[in-house]
Structure formats: C-alpha cells, structure tokens
Amino acid sequence: MAQAYQESHWNPKASSPTGVKGIMMLTRRTAKSLGVKNRLDARQAIPAGAQYLAKMRSRFRDDIPEPDRTYLALAAYNIGRAHMHDAQTLARKLNKNPYRWSDIESVLPLLSEKKHYKKLKYGYARGLEPVLYVQRIRNYQNIIEQKLASD
Question: I need a labelling partner for 71 at 20 to 30 A (CA). Which of 37, 83, 85, 108 fits?
C-alpha cells in the first residue's frame, strides 16, 4: 500500500513525463515482461508491481537481514538494479557495507557526482531519488500501520 501511494498516490491512471504509468508506475518494458497488457488497470498493475519488487528482492543475497533487503529492493525498483550494483561497488570502495541500507543510503547520492559515476559501470544516476523514495515509503507505511491499528 505504501509503495503504491508513493508511486501514484493510489491513482491507477497516473503517468509521468518519463513514460511510467499506472498505480505502480511501471515502464512499458517492465509491464510487458510481467504480462501486463494495460498499465492503467490496477488489477494488473498491483500484482505486477509486487512481482517486480519480489524480483528485485531475489536479486539480493538471501542472508541480508530485514529490513535492509527490502529497502535495497525498493531502491532497485526505483533506480534499477544496475545502478544499485554500482552503488554496492562504490560502497565497497568506500569501506562501507554494500548490504546494509544505512550504508547504501549514504552512497546512492554519490552516483550523481562525476568523480564517482565516471568510474562506475552504469554511469550517472539521480541517486538521491531512491533514498527519498525509500524514506517516503517507510513514512507512509508507518502512517498506514498506525491508522489500521487505531481502527
């Protein structure tokens, strides 16, 4: 629920100038790979978004503790697994743990700095965006959980 709210404010008809659409803001390519025929159909997009997040989670080692693994997967959902790979590579170079969210959270913004991205495989990325993305989802999750607990 929190991720869908961050993506589209629960608007199944949402779209962005970058071409992502629907309640889970799927790219055309991602939607096609998940069997989604209509990204604006929430009945297709929500399970596909959940499936895509699960796919991102599966690309991180099983022994990464929670909630770190989920936060890494959410960031990968937002910025792409390739840029997360770059962030993990940079984390290692900076003697940080590439599997701890608090370390990756501090490294991701560096992907937009030329002195760092020019040495990385996938290059420039707007690295602050996935940091804010994960923070907002965590905030929305807390709000949703508090609301559900009070009802």
Answer: 37
According to DSSP, residue 65 is labeled P
Q: How far apart are CA 25 and CA 41, in angstroms?
A: 11
Active-site pick, 7, 105, 113, 145: 7
Do 42 and 12 touch, CB atoms closer than 8 A? yes
* CA–CA–CA angle 8, 52, 102 (5° rounding): 80
Q: Are 123 and 82 in contact (CB under 8 A)?
A: no
Instruction: Give which of 97, 85, 73, 96 is closest to 122, Cα–Cα.
Output: 85
Q: What pTM did the predictor assign?
A: 0.96
Report the helix count and the strand count for the chain, using DSSP H and E: 8, 0
Q: What is the pLDDT of residues 10-21, one digit of tens each?
A: 999 999 999 999
21, β-bridge pairs? 15, 26
Q: pLDDT at position 25, please?
A: 98
Alpha-helix residue ranges (DSSP H) falling in 20-67: 28-33, 42-58
113 is catalytic: no
Give the chain's largest Cα–Cα span.
51
Tell me: cis bond preceding 109? Omega within 30 of 0 counts: no
